[in-house]
Amino acid sequence: xxxxxxxxxxxxxxxxxxxxxxxxxxxxxxxxxxxxxxxxxxxxxxxxxxxxxxxxxxxxxxxxxxxxxxxxxxxxxxxxxxxxxxxxxxxxxxxxxxxxxxxxxxxxxxxxxxxxxxxxxxxxxxxxxxxxxxxxxxxxxxxxxxxxxxxxxxxxxxxxxxxxxxxxxxxxxxxxxxxxxxxxxxxxxxxxxxxxxxxxxxxxxxxxxxxxxxxxxxxxxxxxxxxxxxxxxxxxxxxxxxxxxxxxxxxxxxxxxxxxxxxxxxxxxxxxxxx
Length: 275
Description:
about 280 residues; Diaminopimelate Epimerase, Chain A, domain 1; alpha+beta; 2 domains
């Protein structure tokens, strides 16, 4: 029988049952992809992070949704850093997570307990001109809105800008139609916030997640847009899912620094009797 640890962490929140839950599975080496996917499917969380330690403060990380591996995930990286920092008894002043598709991600403990600063590559939005997005992708019908303020492409996702937080809160998303936009990982919808700089909701039925509670990686695309529009390098963001989540976002040249907190919900063991 093969046993190994598993943790579940609520990320981008300071309280249990808030933010976005992620599973973190430390491994001596990565298992075959099929087994990693089976574990993530069994966990049935938006992401499971598999982490392999190779040297002091150096980690390799991969992320799986219940249906697919993804190139970049913010909240599961935050969860992994939280687990690694506490399991190392605070010995790490800095953690470097090497990825297969997003370079090396640096994470540092923040000034408050349970807070972390993560440096991710910035994703510069590319405007979809004219009515192309509306005509070809049917985004107004998908979202149940009459007008779009802007449509932009990122490396992974499509981003729609609306005029108000109220519009973002009242979306009526056609997930079946959205799932057909397979050229994108998902759809980000954002607007100016009432009490924060900007708000968003993020939808990923293409990878088995209708609405993600809090999406760190989405803010690598959202932050450059809102930084340019608002003329600010540091912004406070709120993701308006049912669980909700808060992020501090800083544009630092070609990097985005995301600051958030995390809380451990459970720890346990996975038992693979047949492997």
